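Budget justification note: compute hours in this period were largely spent on complex prediction jobs such as the one shown. Inputs:
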Amino acid sequence: MEKIVCVLCPMGCKIKYEAVDGKIVSIEGNRCPRGIAYLEDELKEPKRIVPTSVKVLSGEMPLVSVKTSKPIPKRLIPQFMDLIKKVEVEAPVNVGDVILRNVLDSGADVVATRSVKRISSA
Amino acid sequence: MKTDVLVIGAGAAGMAAAIAAAKNGLKVIVAERDEITGGILNQCIHNGFGLHYFREELTGPEYAERFRERLSEYTDAIQVLTDCHVLKLNRDKKALLVSPKGVFELETKVVIYAAGARERPFGSLMIPGDRPSGIFTAGVAQRLMNIDNRKIGNRALIVGSGDIGMIMARRLTLEGTEVVGVVERLPYPGGLLRNVIQCLKDFNIPLYLSSTVVEVRGKERLEEVVVAKVDEQFRPIPGTEKIFKVDTLVLSVGLIPQVEMLDSLVSLDARTRGIACSSTGQSSCEWIFAAGNCTAIFDLVDYVTREGERAGEYASRYVIGERFTRGVPIVPGENVMLTFPNFYSDVDDLTLYVRCRKPMERAVLKVGSFERVFEDLIPSEMIVVKVPRQKLTGLGRIEVTLQEV
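Corresponding output:
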């Protein structure tokens, strides 16, 4: 049996599995169904949620933290970071606001994870 | 000024405690030295928070914002003073506070101390060599990058493989700082396996186990870090030195409960180095309750929130007139590094936090007449268990042990 640690949540389930030609024939140790999806992805196309931040203009802070709304293919992460560095948004930003839609055709959106108020103009 | 409850610190523990006290109909003042509530959560932009408490995975700022919103639902009961530092707390229940508006006195009936932790500083590591710029604690590096939009360096080495160290390895890599490795003194990683995978393996960052920094070199800016292997007593092994040419060293070598303000008012616990608390959150001074990382370092913010709620609840009942016994001491036994709380007061079942001393495949946790088997134990992952009060009756002392099976 092969072993893998699910990274989808902090539980970090240690999943034991057997796979034949990339097909899972047995699986144990996952405490929720997401573990199966994680293992399937991991065998085919590993994916990760990417938390980072983008520049915000006229905000009370220089950055607004963001994350991908769902895991994106790991191989796209460098390209994703190059893209995200060029993004600027105008304050105000609210938590949950979509900053980019379907980023790199991954099906995931980039969403704000904090609110940034607009700087009060004097 | 007068209040029923003074909460010191508006991080996860303080916010939860304030809400719990407001729900009990008390008047609460929260003093927070930062400009906003949320504490360190605000700079922890990674995901992984809230799975226990909210049953979904949030980033630090999202978790903080949810509590900020809850706080704002109690504006009649809770007054949040940001940019406000508590200078002194006196035995007569009067606090001296300072804010940009000036210095003022506040009289309270109870204090809930939720000041969190601070990072173990570079100076405490006694590393020989120079003292150039380019050496940061992980929290400072995190704040500079995630709040202030600064790049801290070009090539970095990280000391300590706790979760914060590994998360910063990923963060630096994503932001274009090359991370040449993570150095860990222990023979196993200090943080969650999940983070070894998604923060190190995903980015091919080497983890050097059983290794330590033996010297730092650099005139103005850091230039070189010397790393050596260590033996079982953590003594560097001569001849194993390896030189890393880096301009940045990030330290993630542990958190220490922040207790200074209460030092002479309450007793501390020798193991946790935090405020010694009963299962009610009460300290050795009956009108001071405490919660969160100032009592013991917790793994998850979800636990800190629950402890804040607990302290808020019992502190409220204290204000209303209920009195609690200090309870019996809870002490770490075989294979147990630390336990929290430090005393058990027989008012409810006991929520017990235990950190083991070494990795174990399978072990039986024994607490009074309570037993449960746990698997895959590592020191970085706390065991949290609810022990029914019936299992603890008649004990003068509660020893917590983990026997390998």
